[in-house]
């Protein structure tokens, strides 16, 4: 089959056009990253508004609200395949409907600060996040030339980190509580502090912080409706929308390469149709031959003897075949050879599919069991246990947010130069070193070194498992398995989101990160066995590596 975009060079491509589409579509990842951190910034004020003052009470309610976002992400990712099928793989419509769902989720959260509204709102927002983080990587692959797929693939995590950082920056408008530890009636003291706040601090600040993602949804809906309203290039070719395909390719490529890509798409569709027709003809021929076989078994013995005398060589094949009693002609022998070859190829393809699917699940697992979700959801809780100065606590959270974005952005420059496999392996090794540092220095109560280890952790995650995980997964697994890989990702986010407050109380930060270190090491051992490079390879080439 002729390869599409078979040139790995990024020359003769209007990169700005490609990146601009990627930025607009990746606003859905910005939405996810913002929601991922919004509760971390506002949880103290929201807890006090609801009268949750006890640590165990805060851990319970905030843990449930945090987990509802992850649960929604898990459900959304599992529904992606059905969502795409129901819309006939209309990616544009899927993303627009996802934005509508995301807006509803945000509105539900900012209507009221009560537990029920937050639980439902975060669940709906999570559904939108799960759909976004599964559909967007597929969309970017479909609309990006092969030479740039690695770079646009990093947009998923880059924009998630950017959303998290922007949300953290908005924390500056949140009220700061300086609690007097000598106060006996803590709840009454907090209520007095709230009553002294301005209306903006009490009612507007947290709503503004949580409501910003609505703008991201509205911008993307407008752009998808008015500008990026085409089907995928392969869909244009399949639907005979040749004029639209030419116009699209002329916006992406220089003239000569646009024409070459146009011919490649047409040839690809024709070859696909021809392959389907050939398989259909073979199937019909097999049915006809089986019908002839049953008819030939009804003939008299004399006619069968004459037939055997005329074709002695065929008779020899029949007598030596394992299925000699069923063979009726020389053509059936050829059919059996073809079927045997097809079965062997089918078994190889199935084995490859399973191996790639399992690796995709482990790659997504490794990116979550490292402990990033714990730092994203609970960094304010982690720092507040060791730093009583709330202003310093907030500054450190901002530094983490900015560092996470910058380090992930570095993967944009490295992914096409170094490749996927080296970055993932290097990232995993560095993550284990940083996890060990966090665990040891936390156990020794050396906060400065523990914080430096967290910064190193963000660097290790960003350059590999952060930016590279999604483009590698999309290149590795079949499209129908992407939603399951995404679901695995969100399953671990949910597990860590629920368990961290309790493991932190039972084992401490050091014990918790020793656990994450063990899980990451197991993933690393699996990577050494199965991880292969996919940079610049077609689907067929990646598939053949895992036969």
Can you give a write-up of this model?
GO terms for molecular function: transmembrane transporter activity. This protein has 547 residues and is mainly alpha-helical. Helices cover 80% and strands 0% of the residues. The protein is built from 24 helices and no strands. The chain has helices at 15-25, 27-49, 55-86, 91-111, 115-143, 149-153, 155-169, 186-195, 199-211, 213-226, 233-238, 242-252, 255-296, 301-310, 312-320, 330-369, 372-384, 390-418, 420-443, 447-466, 469-476, 482-506, 508-530, 539-545. The longest helix has 42 residues, at 255-296. 40% of the residues are buried.
What is this entry, summarized?
By secondary structure, the chain is an all-alpha fold. It contains 24 helices and no strands. The chain starts with 14 loop residues before the first helix and ends with a helix.
């Amino acid at each position: 089959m002729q390869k599409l975009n078979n040139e790995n060079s990024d020359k003769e491509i209007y990169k700005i056009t490609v990146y601009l589409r990627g930025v607009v579509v990746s606003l859905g990842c910005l939405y996810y990253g913002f929601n991922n951190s919004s509760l971390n910034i506002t949880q103290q004020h929201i807890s006090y508004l609801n009268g949750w003052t006890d640590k165990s009470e805060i851990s319970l309610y905030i843990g449930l609200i945090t987990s509802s976002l992850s649960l929604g992400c898990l459900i959304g990712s599992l529904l992606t395949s059905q969502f795409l099928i129901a819309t006939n793989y209309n990616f544009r419509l899927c993303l627009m409907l996802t934005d509508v769902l995301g807006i509803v989720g945000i509105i539900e959260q900012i209507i009221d600060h009560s537990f029920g509204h937050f639980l439902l709102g975060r669940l709906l927002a999570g559904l939108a996040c799960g759909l976004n983080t599964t559909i967007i990587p597929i969309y970017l692959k479909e609309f990006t030339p092969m030479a740039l797929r690695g770079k646009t693939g990093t947009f998923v995590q880059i924009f998630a980190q950017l959303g998290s950082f922007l949300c953290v920056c908005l924390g500056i408008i949140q009220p700061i509580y300086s609690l007097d530890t000598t106060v006996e009636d803590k709840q009454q003291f907090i209520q007095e502090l709230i009553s002294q706040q301005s209306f903006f601090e009490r009612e507007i600040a947290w709503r503004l912080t949580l409501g910003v993602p609505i703008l991201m949804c509205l911008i993307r809906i407008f752009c998808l409706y008015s500008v990026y309203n085409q089907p995928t290039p392969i869909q244009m070719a399949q639907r005979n929308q040749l004029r639209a395909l030419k116009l699209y390719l002329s916006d992406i490529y220089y003239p000569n390469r646009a024409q070459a890509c146009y011919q490649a798409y047409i040839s690809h569709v024709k070859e696909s149709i021809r392959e389907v027709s050939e398989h259909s003809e073979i199937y019909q021929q097999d049915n006809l031959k089986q019908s002839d076989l049953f008819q030939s078994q009804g003939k008299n013995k004399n006619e069968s003897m004459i037939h055997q005398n005329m074709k002695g060589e065929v008779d020899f094949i029949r007598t030596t075949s394992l299925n000699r009693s069923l063979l009726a002609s020389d053509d059936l022998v050829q059919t059996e050879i073809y079927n045997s070859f097809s079965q062997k190829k089918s078994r190889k393809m199935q084995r490859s599919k399973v191996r790639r699917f399992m690796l995709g699940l482990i790659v997504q697992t490794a990116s979550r069991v490292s402990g990033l979700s714990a730092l994203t959801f609970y960094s304010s809780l982690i720092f507040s246990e060791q730093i009583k100065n709330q202003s310093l606590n907030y500054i450190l959270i901002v530094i983490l947010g900015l560092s996470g974005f910058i380090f992930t952005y570095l993967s944009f420059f490295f992914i096409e130069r170094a490749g996927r496999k080296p970055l993932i392996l290097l990232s995993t090794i560095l993550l284990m070193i940083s996890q060990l540092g966090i665990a040891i220095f936390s156990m020794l109560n050396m906060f400065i070194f523990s914080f430096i280890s967290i910064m190193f952790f963000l660097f290790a995650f960003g350059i590999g498992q952060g930016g590279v995980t999604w483009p590698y997964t999309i290149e590795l697994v079949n499209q129908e398995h992407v939603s399951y890989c995404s679901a695995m990702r969100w399953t671990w986010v949910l597990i860590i989101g629920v368990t961290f407050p309790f493991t932190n109380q039972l084992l401490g930060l050091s014990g918790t990160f020793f656990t994450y270190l063990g899980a990451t090491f197991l993933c690393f051992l699996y990577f050494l066995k199965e991880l292969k490079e996919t940079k610049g390879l077609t689907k067929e080439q990646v598939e053949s590596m895992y036969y």
